[in-house]
């Protein structure tokens, strides 16, 4: 069969890489892909089309049997609705279901309606009212742009000055455009974050491996928020007891609630968790797609064939699937970012030092890269995702950083502490 993956980041490279391994697959097309998918095996091919209607035409012409949607923006713009209207099989939530991600206000109100544990909040469009609320609540406090902001629309304010500045930048200075014309202000939740993923057909679901992401740009969880600077899986933080709580208190009520409201959620559901010192999970955010960079190490560990799982889920037949099989090892990814990321990433720098081919233990997934005149160049903020397997989290970490040491491009920046918290927890 032929499959189309929509997207051009590290998440899409990892999904396409995994899908192409299936004996059921003849070819995986990636629209628009990146330098890594262009350099990959003959089973992968980039498609330089961004218009959704043209992509649907491409699927008809090429007899594509399944489309997998990677990025949040495409889901929010209704690509799944369009493909379904054309009678094309597509895995991903409709625009209505994806509102769990593209509107923080909708998501918070949904959780309140269905008694799903999350932070207390209020929504504002008026800056003066938002400022008054922050003064009343005090700090620390969290300010979020309502819409999509590429993982950068969240400010955890430790001081009132930071909170007021965040409000002004979103509501008055239009830092995030329409995405920030409404903001959600939440109570600060203490604890440690983890990422929880499920594959759903709208009613039934399968759990994927847990992971932990590193959002801040710099070591020690300092600097601005980013789309993610690294991740590892599984997350030692998520014990069997916490896992069961997430399923019962969050996942089942969410899927049941979405179906009851007439917008069943078919696709990858990402639950960003905050787990407090008592082991109680609460929802930080929902994403209507796989996380990036969590997808990369998760795909490294997944041993099951992903193709029949997604194919059946897209048809509402997920209950026929059995449990997924996982590599017992840990996987960790380190993001190599361009100069100026996340505010103003530079493009066009030459990349050298990449391994000529992937090994069983280390794969470099591409994100912001492009091939131009035979050279591999940077083409975005997060450039490469150096991902490694190890029998321990420490070994996976060591292997990833050993590979990082060989890669070069001007202005390259990366964190040197990806996985440290997990190593400490796992080895203690």
Automatic annotation (TrEMBL):
HAMAP family: GARS. Belongs to the GARS family. Residues 108-315 form the ATP-grasp domain. It holds the Pfam family GARS_N. It comes from Saezia sanguinis. SUPFAM superfamilies: Glutathione synthetase ATP-binding domain-like, PreATP-grasp domain, Rudiment single hybrid motif. GO terms for biological process: 'de novo' IMP biosynthetic process; purine nucleobase biosynthetic process. NCBIfam families: purD. Its EC number is 6.3.4.13. Pathway: Purine metabolism; IMP biosynthesis via de novo pathway; N(1)-(5-phospho-D-ribosyl)glycinamide from 5-phospho-alpha-D-ribose 1-diphosphate: step 2/2. This is Phosphoribosylamine--glycine ligase. Signal peptide: none annotated. Keywords: ATP-binding, Ligase, Magnesium, Manganese, Metal-binding, Nucleotide-binding, Purine biosynthesis. InterPro entries: ATP-grasp, ATP_grasp_subdomain_1, PreATP-grasp_dom_sf, PRibGlycinamid_synth_ATP-grasp, PRibGlycinamide_synth, PRibGlycinamide_synth_C-dom, PRibGlycinamide_synth_C_sf, PRibGlycinamide_synth_N. GO terms for molecular function: ATP binding; metal ion binding; phosphoribosylamine-glycine ligase activity. The keyword Membrane does not apply. The gene is purD. It catalyses: 5-phospho-beta-D-ribosylamine + glycine + ATP = N(1)-(5-phospho-beta-D-ribosyl)glycinamide + ADP + phosphate + H(+). The keyword Ligase applies. Its cofactor is Mg(2+); Mn(2+).
């Amino acid at each position: 069969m032929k499959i189309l993956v929509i997207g051009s980041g590290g998440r899409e490279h990892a999904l396409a890489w995994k899908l192409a391994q299936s004996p059921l697959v003849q070819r995986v097309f990636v629209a628009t892909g990146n330098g890594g998918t262009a350099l990959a095996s003959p089973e992968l091919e980039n498609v330089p089309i961004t218009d959704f209607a043209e992509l649907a035409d491409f699927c008809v012409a090429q007899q594509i049997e399944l489309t997998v949607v990677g990025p949040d923006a495409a889901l929010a713009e209704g690509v799944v609705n369009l493909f379904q209207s054309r009678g094309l099989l597509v895995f991903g939530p409709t625009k209505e279901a994806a509102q769990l991600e593209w509107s923080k206000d909708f998501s918070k109100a949904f959780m309140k309606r269905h008694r799903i544990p999350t932070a207390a909040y209020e929504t504002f469009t008026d800056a003066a009212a938002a400022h008054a609320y922050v003064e009343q609540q005090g700090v620390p406090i969290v300010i979020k742009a309502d819409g999509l902001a590429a993982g950068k629309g969240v400010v955890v304010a430790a001081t009132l000055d930071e909170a007021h500045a965040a409000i002004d930048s979103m509501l008055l200075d239009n830092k995030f455009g329409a995405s920030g014309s409404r903001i959600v202000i939440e109570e600060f939740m203490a604890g440690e974050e983890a990422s929880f993923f499920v594959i759903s057909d709208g009613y039934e679901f399968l759990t994927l491996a847990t992971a932990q992401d590193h959002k801040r740009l710099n070591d020690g969880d300092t600097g601005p928020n980013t789309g993610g600077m690294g991740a590892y899986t599984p997350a030692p933080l998520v014990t069997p007891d916490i896992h069961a709580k997430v399923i019962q208190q969050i996942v089942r009520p969410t899927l049941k609630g979405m179906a009851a409201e007439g917008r069943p959620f078919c696709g990858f559901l990402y639950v960003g968790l905050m787990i407090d010192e008592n082991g109680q999970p609460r929802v930080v955010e929902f994403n209507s797609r796989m996380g990036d960079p969590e997808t990369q190490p998760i795909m490294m560990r997944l041993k099951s064939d992903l193709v029949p799982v997604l194919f059946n889920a897209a048809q509402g037949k997920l209950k026929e699937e059995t449990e997924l099989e996982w590599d017992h090892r840990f996987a960790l990814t380190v993001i190599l970012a361009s100069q100026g990321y996340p505010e103003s990433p530079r493009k066009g720098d030459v990349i050298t030092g990449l391994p000529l081919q992937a090994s069983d233990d280390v794969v470099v997934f591409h994100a912001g890269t492009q091939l131009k005149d035979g050279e591999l160049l940077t083409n975005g903020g997060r450039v490469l995702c150096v991902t490694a397997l190890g029998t321990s989290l420490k070994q996976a970490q060591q292997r990833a950083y050993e590979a990082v040491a060989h890669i070069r491009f001007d202005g390259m920046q990366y964190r040197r502490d990806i996985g440290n918290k997990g190593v400490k927890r796992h080895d203690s």
